[in-house]
Write a structure and sequence with these properties.
A: Ribosomal Protein S5, domain 2, 5-stranded mixed beta sheet, 9 strands, 30% helix, B: 4-stranded antiparallel beta sheet, disordered C terminus
Chain lengths: 243, 284
């Protein structure tokens, strides 16, 4: 803590060689699992996040079903080996909060009213964590939902922005997340121009917050392009096989 | 697992009335869109706690008790004391709160109060170390929701901050062998800031501050900002389902700071006289 390392050098280059607006490399592997209705392995830097979707299916226990819509069940969990120090497999308060935050982000885009009295299960398993896992989790969940063919109002793209060495930077890495001054995860639906997840902790001026929000949206647009490409590629492949 | 909860039933007539009034800039309880309910508080009402505050915000009532104990600093922060925030939604506060360990709503509330206090640097954690890496003060902040009338976040953040301001810690002497002896001296907790949170409810793309219970049950979504005394933002949280446009987020951030300044002068205003008589009111 006392030896504060430099996060951005004089040329504006970050510890991992990126500029302030650059995202980490993203790799999307759709349909990674065989048994889930939809799945994806989403890699962003060292983040490895596996998302899977089951349903819409019958609800157990029955009393949790709703007569006018599908319910969503979301589980966000980090593997014990995903972090520097082993994480206990018991659910932490953080995981309980993030499961809720991810569910809230997806509730308003999934067309749940088309599937009354059913449940859609969404699992987000963080296999390796490298900062920004909740927004990577939302991004992955949106892809898995699309892969499962569940109708949505739009594709949700997430990206975290933050503040390191007094500058607003996109897509924080682990060091910037731990030693930087602020972290702000944002999930955005480009086709609707709406935000579905917004959190921030750290210290920012109001001017910086404005800048951070617009950078978050720009970053989410980049993520969105990759999501659309991945979905189109898989869809086209299927079409070719059918012929 | 986080599971979709059934939305509370709000009568269609009430909902329609609410939306009609809102489009004219009025609310069902006759408040303006940027008007808070009355805020009042009392501090030091739990004598056995090291600090406490009972705060009411309209019909919402929150009691926060602070206990300070000795403990060990975390390995990665040997030069800092420890802050622990917990929240309980007591079943007597609302029929929708169930007995049992804190659910996701209580956990999210506690974590937001924690972030507001921690990221504003309100509590000077460095001043809580007695022997670096070995002994420090552990400050437990327990948020007890007594009556749920909407906007728990603002009530809890303000009550927690007020309780911390009221907290006294016992001083210890350390001899050359590192042995601790309790002294008779009692000091106030060293504080650097006073965080103020401002929550917006959003229905049909219209936003207003401090949603009451009926508004909260009808809202699409919520957005909370916590400001430091200098106007920096130290925590933000969007709650519940629903979507917000980026332009409105910025509008709310700006309006929120105006409201935070008003609340701040009320919260920090009545510092004279007997703590127990210390009751403030917010009209605006």
């Amino acid at each position: 803590m006392s030896t504060k390392r430099q996060l951005i050098n004089e040329q504006g280059i970050r510890t991992d060689g990126r500029g302030v607006d650059d995202l980490r490399p993203i790799k999307i592997t759709l349909g990674y699992l065989t048994h889930a209705n939809g799945s994806v392995l989403y890699e962003q830097g060292k983040n490895k996040i596996l998302a899977a979707v089951f349903g819409p299916s019958e609800v157990h226990p029955k009393h949790t079903e709703l007569p006018d819509r599908a319910i969503l069940r979301v589980r966000y969990r980090m593997a014990p080996f995903s972090t520097e120090e082993r994480k206990s497999p018991a659910p932490t308060r953080r995981e309980i909060e993030l499961s809720m935050v991810i569910r809230n982000a997806l509730e308003s885009v999934v067309l749940t009213e088309l599937f009354p009295r059913t449940v859609i299960d969404i699992f987000v398993e963080v296999l390796q964590a490298d900062a920004g896992t909740r927004v990577a989790g939302v991004t992955a969940a949106a892809l898995a939902l699309a892969d499962a063919g569940i109708p949505m109002r739009g594709i949700t793209a997430g990206c975290a922005v933050g503040k390191a060495d007094g500058k607003i930077v996109c897509d924080l890495n682990d060091i910037e997340d731990k030693e930087g001054e602020a972290d702000m995860p944002v999930a955005y639906i480009p086709t609707l121009n709406k935000i579905s997840l917004l959190q921030m902790d750290g210290l920012m001026t109001q001017e910086e917050f404005k800048q951070a929000l617009s950078k978050a949206i720009n970053s989410a647009m980049k993520v969105y392009q990759l999501q659309v490409n991945a979905l189109k590629t898989k869809y086209i492949k299927r079409e070719e096989v059918k012929k | 697992m986080s599971i979709t909860r059934e939305k509370p039933v709000v009568s269609k007539i009430l909902q329609k009335e609410m939306l009609e009034l809102l489009s004219n800039g009025v609310r069902i309880d006759k408040r303006k869109l940027d008007e808070y309910r009355k805020i009042s508080y009392q501090t030091g009402i739990i004598e056995k706690a090291d600090g406490s505050a009972l705060l009411s915000l309209g019909e919402t009532m929150v009691l926060v008790g602070v206990k300070v104990e000795l403990g060990q600093p975390f390995g990665d922060t040997p030069d800092q004391g420890v802050l622990v925030v917990n929240a309980e939604l007591l079943p007597l506060a609302s029929q929708t709160f169930e007995p049992g360990p804190p659910d996701e709503r209580a956990i999210a509330l506690a974590r937001y109060v924690d972030r507001s206090i921690r990221e504003s640097n309100m509590v000077d954690l460095k001043s809580l170390v007695i022997v670096p890496g070995k002994v420090c003060y552990v400050v437990y902040v327990d948020v007890y929701v007594l009556d749920y009338g909407g906007n728990l976040i603002d009530a809890s953040v303000l009550a927690a901050a007020k309780a911390l301001e009221n907290t006294k810690i016992r001083k210890y002497e350390v001899d050359e062998n590192g042995k601790l002896t309790e002294t008779e001296n009692v000091e106030n907790l060293k504080l650097n800031d006073f965080p103020i949170s401002v929550t917006f409810g959003i229905i049909n793309n219209k936003y207003f501050v401090d949603p009451n219970l009926e508004e909260e049950q009808t809202c699409d979504t919520f957005l909370t900002f916590t400001y430091t005394q200098t106007g920096n933002i130290c925590a933000v949280m969007k709650n519940e389902q629903g979507l917000i446009s980026p332009a409105q987020v910025i509008e709310m951030m700006e309006l929120g700071w105006k409201k935070a300044k008003e609340i701040s002068s009320l919260m920090l205003g009545g510092q004279k006289g007997n703590d127990q008589e210390n009751i403030g009111n917010a009209g605006s």
